Structures are given as structure tokens and as C-alpha cells.
Amino acid sequence: MTAADHSTQPAADDTSPEDPDLDPDANDPDVQAANEELSSGRNQRLAADRSRARELFVQLAELPEDDPRRARLRDELVELHLPLVEYLARRFRNRGEQFDDLVQVANLGLIKSVDGYDPARGAAFTSYAIPMIVGELKRHFRDKGWDVRVPRRLQELRLEISKVSGDLAQDLGRSPTVADLATRLGVSEEEVIEGLDCGQAYRALSLDAPAGDGTDVGAAGLGDLLGAEDPDMANVENREALRPLLAKLPEREQKIIAMRFHGNLTQSQIAAELGISQMHVSRLLAGALKSMRDQLTREG
């Protein structure tokens, strides 16, 4: 990504302004909109006294690093461009972040711009500051705005996928496939899938959030729609293991077990049904259960 002329100067900290997220080029829509607003003069609050700003920057550049007047000039320059900070922060509203937090982030970008600007290059301060401030705001969303932290590599890949998807759709006359995206970006299909999936991590929904469009006050929450463990699933393996063992038992023992555990009859009721004593039923039942238990133990 091509940076503006002044954007190659080192920033105040260890973050390089050549980072594309911190220093968007002149084609960035947010940078273009701010520059257009300034040049048109429609927004007088943005039209800071450029001659006054240039005078202050010249004075600041002429002072030694240890001169106490530098702090006053720096503060005045920052205050002079606060309307620009608020305007740029306002362009990023309604994206899940508090406006006051965005203003603070934009102020950080402004301070870096004031510290890094070189008036000797002849360009207007705003042509240097706007990309820096916009970049700082976008880096904030990149690094702090995700509900689930994902590697920066995947975040950048997701942005690249978004950029090329429109061009590919136009060239191909259809929506690009994963293979199309992988070929254009020079990455594997697995990486493209990872990049697409990571977009789901930007915002997480609460399990207490109502399902549907949220208009139904009595609607169930998302958590109510999640599946739970079926207690009968734990018995599936046991039933399948017992099925062939039951088939090996004599017919009378099979019938007694069915009446006892499926029909929930007592031993006395079973005895009356079969015309035998309750004690005989008890012996037959105990013997059948022991036989199956022994076979399960041996096979296990």
C-alpha cells in the first residue's frame, strides 16, 4: 500500500507508520472524505487556522529538544486540531465502540502526528495527520474490537479476502469459490477457510439474547435452543451389548426379564402370570442376570 509523502517518517513510538493499518493511502475512503471536507471549507470546525498551525510547527522545529516552551507549543497544536480528531472519530461510530473511546484513540494518532510532522517538507499538516489518525482508529478495531482474539495474520487475510472478492465476482461473473480466492491470494484453501471463519469472532452474541429478530418479548434465548446431552444415549451401548445375550437365554427367562424390566411387574405378579412360585421367579431372574453379567465381564 502506497503511503503519503510524510508517512515514511518514524512515529513517536515503535509502531511504524508504514504499517498499512496505521497509515492508509490517499485512496482510503475515510481519508478521502476528510480531505474533501477540509478542502471544500463546508465544515468550518475542521478548517483549523492553517497559517497559525504552520507558524507553531516552525517555532517548534526551531526550538532545542530540551526547551520548556516545546510542551506549550505542542499542546496548542493538539488543541488546534481537536475538531479534526472528533470528526474522524465520528466516522467510526456505530461499530460497537464507545464514541469517547474512539476520540481517545484518535487523540493518540493526533499526538503521534504532531510529534512526527516535519514542516520542512512543505506539505500541509492535515495531509500527514489524517492518514495517521485514521490508521490509529483502524488499528484499534483490529487489535481491541474483537470479542475473540484471533491472530493478526488471519485478520489481515480476512481483509484481503474482502478486497479481492468483489473483483473476482466481477471477473468471473459469479461468486468466487474458496479455490478462486486461494489462487488469487496465493495461499492454500485451508487458509482461506480460516480467514473466512475468523470473521465470526469479531462479535459474540450472548446466550441470553432473544432468538429471532428480537421483537418478541417472550422469545426464548439462544441458550434455550442449544442441544443438551440425551440421557438415553448413555444406554445405547448397554442395550446393544445386551441384545445378543438376551437372545441366548431360554424363552421363559427372556419373558421374565421383559415382564420385570419392561412391564415393571413385581415378582409376585410375574409368578401369578406364569403359574409358578415367587421364589422360583426370583431364582430364574437372578440366574439370568448373573449369566448375562458374567458374559459382559468376559467380553469387556
Low-confidence stretches: 1-23
Distance between the termini: 65 Å
Percent strand equals: under 5%
Helix-strand topology string:
HHHHHHHHHHHHH
What's the β-strand tally? 0
Overall shape:
elongated
Strand count, sense and barrel status of the largest sheet are: none
Q: What is the average per-residue confidence, as pLDDT, rounded to a whole number?
A: 79
Provide a count of the helices: 13
The whole-angstrom Rg is 36 Å
Classification by helices and strands: mainly alpha
- Which bin fits the share of residues in helices? 55-70%
Number of separate domains: 3
Could you characterize what this model shows?
The chain folds into 3 domains: 5-144, no CATH class; 149-202, Winged helix-like DNA-binding domain superfamily/Winged helix DNA-binding domain (Arc Repressor Mutant, subunit A, Orthogonal Bundle), CATH 1.10.10.10; 237-299, Arc Repressor Mutant, subunit A. It has helices at 29-40, 50-62, 69-80, 82-90, 99-116, 125-144, 152-172, 178-185, 189-198, 233-248, 251-262, 267-274, 278-299. 19% of the residues are buried. It contains 13 helices and no strands. It is elongated, with a radius of gyration of 36 Å. With 300 residues, it is mainly α. Mean pLDDT is 79; it is low at 1-23.
Q: How would you concisely characterize the structure shown here?
A:
With 300 residues, the chain is mainly alpha-helical.
List keywords for this structure.
300 residues; 3 domains; mainly alpha; elongated; Arc Repressor Mutant, subunit A
Helix and strand arrangement:
Elements: H1 29-40, H2 50-62, H3 69-80, H4 82-90, H5 99-116, H6 125-144, H7 152-172, H8 178-185, H9 189-198, H10 233-248, H11 251-262, H12 267-274, H13 278-299
